[in-house]
């Protein structure tokens, strides 16, 4: 992909190559939202089993989710995060992937 840039001279344009792969691999965030249906224990269990968090990490994230309404539980590429999100949603949690390309 190319990007057109203009320099100080009004009639001069220059093409710069832009790394498309870099844009695609930009980090996204897996966000879990608070709800009125799931218990702390269930959220903790899901974060441990699905994301691979330690019990301490999962407990801290469950508290953040409860008190702040949401928490980022994992960062990575969209392709990496999608299976985690799908698994959390299948278990009844409210989860989305946020980021430039999500």
SSE blueprint:
Layout: E1 2-6, E2 13-17, H1 20-24, E3 28-33, H2 40-51, H3 55-68, E4 70-76, H4 78-90, E5 94-98
Antiparallel strand pairs: 1-2, 3-4, 3-5
Summed up, what is this model?
This protein is α+β, with helices and mostly antiparallel strands and 102 residues long. The chain has helices at 20-24, 40-51, 55-68, 78-90, and strands at residues 2-6, 13-17, 28-33, 70-76, 94-98.
The CATH C-level name is Alpha Beta
Give helix and strand order, one letter per element, not per position.
Answer: EEHEHHEHE
User: Mind summarizing the main beta sheet?
Assistant: 3 strands, antiparallel
Strand order within the widest sheet?
Answer: 4-3-5
Into how many domains do the coordinates divide?
1
- Tell me the β content: 25-35%
**Class based on secondary structure composition and strand pairing:** alpha+beta
Helix content: 40-55%
By CATH's scheme, which homologous superfamily applies? Ribosomal protein L7/L12, C-terminal domain/Adaptor protein ClpS
- Number of strand elements: 5
The overall average pLDDT, rounded, is: 85
């Amino acid at each position: 992909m190319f990007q057109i840039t203009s320099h100080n001279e009004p009639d001069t344009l220059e093409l710069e190559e832009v790394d498309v792969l870099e844009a695609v691999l930009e980090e996204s965030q897996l966000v879990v939202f608070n709800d009125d249906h799931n218990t702390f224990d269930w959220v903790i269990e899901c974060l441990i089993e699905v994301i691979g968090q330690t019990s301490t990490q999962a407990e801290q994230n469950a508290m953040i989710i409860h008190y702040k309404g949401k928490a980022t539980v994992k960062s990575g590429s969209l392709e990496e995060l999608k299976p985690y999100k799908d698994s959390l949603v299948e278990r009844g949690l409210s989860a989305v992937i946020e980021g430039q390309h999500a």
